[in-house]
Each structure stands twice: as C-alpha cells, then as structure tokens.
Write a structure and sequence with these properties.
Layout (H helix, E strand, L loop, with lengths): L1 E5 L6 H12 L3 E3 L6 H8 L6 H17 L5 E4 L5 H8 L7 E6 L2 H10 L10 H7 L7 E4 L4 H18 L1
Parallel strand pairs: 1-3, 1-4, 2-3, 4-5
Helix pairs in contact: 1-7, 3-4
Length: 165
C-alpha cells in the first residue's frame, strides 16, 4: 500500500506518517528531505515556492514512490494542488491512498509558532492555504484530534478495507 499523508505545513503530516510506518512496517518518505537547497533557502527567507520550484521535487518524489510500489511506503508531503498529486501518481500503476489532515489556520499557525528547527516559517502558512485544493477521494481527518487518535482512525479504515477486499 502506498499512502500519501498530505496537508499544509504544520498539520502533523510527518508525525502521523511515522506512526503509520511503524504500525504497518512500511518505509517512511519525508518529502522535506527531497527539497533542493535552493527551495529550502527560499522558504527560510520567507518566500513561498512556486510551481516551477516544486516540479523537480515532485518528480523525485514520484520516482521514490515508484521504487517502493511493490513493498509499499508512507509519504509525508504537502501535495497541496491536484496537479501535484497527479505528478506523484504519474509513475505508479495504482493511485496512492490520500490521507488529508485538515485544520484551521489559527490552530496550525499556533503549532508552527511553537515548533523549533523547521525551515518553513509560519508567515508562509497563508500561502499554503491559498494554494490548497481539497483532495477528492481522500480520507480526511480533523487535526483537532491528537495524532494518536488520528493514527488509530486511519488503521481502522485500513483494516475495514482489507476485510472487505
């Protein structure tokens, strides 16, 4: 199973994805690790990425999904626009299962202001919300719940699907 945990910066993608990897014994792919230095510097300087910045990054992530297609993996990636998700799915035979972590601007900004060590400043959060296209056919989870609750809800959905074929 290939799973994409998506949403704006600060919504908890990496935390939820790591929990799923551990529970499902799947590799974890952190999209942030695939950003070229130029993208990281741009964000650190308070400049949002544009589509031309994201395209090579998304292509590399699509290749990583292809490498893990047989075994499965969990990718934590913002994947804000439909065309970004299309790129991620472009090299694999079956679409990834999208898990969308949804929350209010205020809640996520508060989380971002409290976290340390991440290159994405909270002043870029509005640009993420402006770019966000709510995914179709995704499992959507409200991040007002803690990550452990969301994790259990996702595992229950996976169990139900596996039982029903």
């Amino acid at each position: 199973m290939l799973i994409l945990v998506m949403g704006v910066s600060g919504c908890g993608k990496s935390t939820v994805a790591r929990q799923l990897c551990e529970a499902l014994n799947l590799p974890f792919i952190e999209a942030d690790d695939f950003h070229p230095e130029a993208n990281v510097l741009k964000m650190k300087n308070g400049q949002p990425l544009d589509d031309s910045d994201r395209e090579p990054w998304l292509q590399n992530l699509a290749l990583e999904l292809k490498k893990n297609e047989v075994r499965g993996a969990v990718l934590a990636c913002s994947a804000l626009k439909e065309k970004y998700r299309t790129t991620l799915n472009s090299l694999i035979s079956k679409p990834v299962q999208i898990i969308f972590l949804e929350g209010s601007f205020e809640l996520i900004k508060n989380r971002m202001d409290q976290r340390a060590g991440h290159f994405m400043p909270s002043q870029l959060l509005q640009s993420q919300f402006d770019s966000l296209e709510t995914p179709k056919n995704a499992w959507t989870f409200d991040i007002q719940n803690d990550s452990a609750t969301i994790h259990l809800q996702i595992l229950e959905k996976i169990k139900t699907i596996n039982e029903n074929g």
